[in-house]
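Schema walk-through. Below, the input block comes first and the output block second. Nothing else is stored per chain. Lengths vary across the set, and this one has 189 residues.
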Amino acid sequence: MEIFGEDIIIREAFPEEASAIRDLTVEAMEFYRQNSGINKDVLESLTESVESVKERIRRHHCLVAASAGTPLGTITVSYCDNPMKYSFSVQTGRTLSEYRDCAYISRFAVSERFRDTGLGVALMGEALRTPVVTRSGLALLHTSVSNVKMRDFYFNRGFILLDSEDSRGYERGLFAYMSNQNGRDNLTA
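--- output ---
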């Protein structure tokens, strides 16, 4: 893909990119935090260590959109063997109980220069095509319900808002992407 004259590829991240990925994530999460009205001490992603990022790269599907070796965007897809751990309510519990496992999407970040260019759409598309998502048929993520831009971004990618809670001091929504696997799709959730 080419954006702003940059030839960009999306691939699995390398451990040696951990520092750059951490810096990119911190910058994007600070922007997200400010636009969501979230207190500074609430988001773990703002204080994540380089070693923690290296571990995430080794253990999960940490994708990076890069140009000339420089990370411009990142997203992590993790395997979760029990989707019920994300259940906030009886209603959510009923929906999640239909799945034996799921994917969990986190650390989604795009460099300021490349926001609103389609790079985030491309990263999310790749994340939703990872084996853990296609096998389980369910991908979950959290985002601030008050952040209209992010909420709409997820809605436009086929996610639905399953539930929300405010234990972290802001309304945090649990969003779900359900593929057509098992005869289900997001319209029947």
